[in-house]
Amino acid sequence: MTGGPLTPDLRDALAGQLSDGALREVSDAYLSEPRGTWRGSAGAVVAPRDTEEVAKVICFARDHGVAVVPWGGGTGLVGGQTLPNAAPILLSLERMRAIRAVYPDENVLVAEAGAILADVQAAARDAGRLFPLSLASEGTARMGGLLATNAGGVNVLRYGNARDLCLGLEAVLPDGSILHGLRRLRKDNTGYDLRNLLIGAEGTLGVITAASLRLFPQPGAEGTAMLVVDGPRAALSLLARAQAMGGVSAFELISGQGLRFLRDHALPVRQPFDDIPDWCVLVDLGLPEGGDPACQLERLFEAGFEAGEVSDGVIAQSEAQRHELWAVRETIPEANKRTGAIASNDISLPLSEVPGFIEACGARLHAAAELRINCFGHLGDGNLHFNLFPPEGRSKAEYRDRAADLRRIVDDAVAERGGSFSAEHGVGRLKVEQMRRYGDPAKLAAMRAIKDALDPAGIMNPGAVLGD
Amino acid sequence: MTGGPLTPDLRDALAGQLSDGALREVSDAYLSEPRGTWRGSAGAVVAPRDTEEVAKVICFARDHGVAVVPWGGGTGLVGGQTLPNAAPILLSLERMRAIRAVYPDENVLVAEAGAILADVQAAARDAGRLFPLSLASEGTARMGGLLATNAGGVNVLRYGNARDLCLGLEAVLPDGSILHGLRRLRKDNTGYDLRNLLIGAEGTLGVITAASLRLFPQPGAEGTAMLVVDGPRAALSLLARAQAMGGVSAFELISGQGLRFLRDHALPVRQPFDDIPDWCVLVDLGLPEGGDPACQLERLFEAGFEAGEVSDGVIAQSEAQRHELWAVRETIPEANKRTGAIASNDISLPLSEVPGFIEACGARLHAAAELRINCFGHLGDGNLHFNLFPPEGRSKAEYRDRAADLRRIVDDAVAERGGSFSAEHGVGRLKVEQMRRYGDPAKLAAMRAIKDALDPAGIMNPGAVLGD
């Protein structure tokens, strides 16, 4: 079964059960998504004021067999928040944005699902702590969606994914019951791990309404370097070297193609090197108070230079320079957008497979079509954004018919090396076909059994992750 | 439904399907457990040689409705490996103990479920890496059981529980299908998190057959100190101080009662202080190469002393002294055993609730009965072993009728403060009643739905975790 549409009659009946202000206008923002590929639909946009009201909505949906799409900041890149043609209840958590409590002594913060990531970061900072989840959409993305999709970002190498930053969840399950799991415990072995089941389920098993989150001591001293490396293999050796020294917060791979895109579109970032290198890495350190990151980065450079891994480098000497280096990395997605990608891939690989993959998959793609590849991303996590672009002077439109085939070349190469076709963006609706093709049959069967057991009416985000 | 017994006829039929050597003698070791409280039963002990043979056993059990109890090292403390009177198939992983692969460059090791923890640690060490899971039974406990119970131990503060050390699982699900999930990825968002569902399910949702595990760089320099603290509250302040300095691997609380038990039973450990203090902490540091842990511990002592948190201390000046200090902590369970506990509690609390709990729960217990409390454990994780003993000159036998009531006082006090009645030992069969009393109703209902969906015949470790 899958949930059906919210008819106007049902909408009126639902509205009668909710508090003032719960019904929102169905505006474009709720129906579009960042890449502009799909458009969703809505029988109503409902923004409950509290968890009890979320439960009321879910009970209503369950009783009437109506589809519900949980809606956070709308920043998802795989269409999980966008159900076309079904007129579901779009359940927006936007009014539930409280930081319910901060426990600095425990390194714990409790936030509602509608809290914006940047606000959670700020609340942690105000308490003298760090909430390390950090990604491009942090000014818009909300905690519920970040957890439902197990978001990644630039600090995963050190602090883990959203999953690893969550100690407990409050959620409304598809039967309308409230899961009271806002624990603040580092160890708790009392039954099945529903928290991690809801995290990454992309709203198909319930609605996350609040979370207890892990905080960390703020680093006492931070530093950043951009180092020219001999290639992905050298970058990995350098990563191991950096990790043995300790304190690595981020280790990002940047290709010459990315730097050229920045230059070609005259984006306002300072090129770190006079001659654009083929490959470089951005290394970020966070050390305890008294540490000297610039000195440690210097030692890393020297050791890498001696080993033939590194040939040039810039070590930031001020906060302003750190931001300049980071701006290079963070502006690459904008440069990609302006160039116009044929296909974008968010993949991960076992670390030691990364260099071979980049080489072999690149060769296959170049044999199949004339194109440019911008390969960049979170090398420390084995997570690459491996995006395909037309050659100079041609447009992505000319490649429309080839895009699926080219994407398939990438996905097959990833699967052959034990990688994942979705590292940090999730499955949503975009990657349901890939899920079917590359998913383990036993896993898919167990997922379906769990879905049917917890959501027999199929009301929760139907079509996402599992397909219809 | 719950699985039934393996009759002699069924046993012969099963034996006919398996390779030579799969059937083991049903010896006492398989039926007893470390605390000697219960005795299990077995229609047969089966030790498959590989994953396919595990699947064959599960298919047989499924087809004939026979109960299966996965059996690792037999070290569990809550009876999860011990099913009385049902004559199940005891499925021992003892023959599947291979380290299948080590990837030092990726900080990954793939071990079969029957690999003994100490062997996994050694394999990591041989590759110049650290596998940080460490607990008293590491010479006997096997990876499958450690993962199925999400084991903890002394390094959780820094490296996490068994759950956090696992990147992927191979398992046989209750329908006999093989889950091929031995991924070596740091980021993978492709569907529901079955890995974490199986971890901590204590064999009720399937049999873990192999795991890909996270390794870490070996610390370049390690150090240990035992510091006398003013009480649990001072200990927590000192913990925050130590964490801001970085590199804390373990932070263990030790009570004067524990030190007195060591002395009373003349156990062969050196008392760290001339006068036994009321409270002390064991602090362990692991720093990158070039770090100076003794110097950092000195700074910690000085800062703690100035703040009135610390009054005395010993900082190990050699590996031998480190081991001496650790021996104090590690011999306390033996001292407890010789004293004879009325009740042992493996609890966790939100960190800031720990001091209030120790005080208030202690007062309630002393008001209810004449007894001694030995409170010790992994303070950094909020995990206390809060064990109750008769006063000197009396025996635990005299308290037999009171034990349940006293345990209930502890559990109630834990629940009031948002804690857990099982921090690291799991639920097994010992704590099913507590699970029912303190478990969240929505969680219990969802657990039951998942169990019935994945194991409709109820063959997997029936009675554990969920009860009958």
From TrEMBL, chains A, B:
Its cofactor is FAD. GO terms for biological process: respiratory electron transport chain. One of its GO terms (molecular function) is FAD binding. It comes from the Bacteria. Residues 38-218 form the FAD-binding PCMH-type domain. Pfam families: FAD-oxidase_C, FAD_binding_4. SUPFAM superfamilies: FAD-binding/transporter-associated domain-like (SSF56176), FAD-linked oxidases, C-terminal domain (SSF55103). Belongs to the FAD-binding oxidoreductase/transferase type 4 family. This is FAD/FMN-containing dehydrogenase. It comes from Palleronia pelagia.
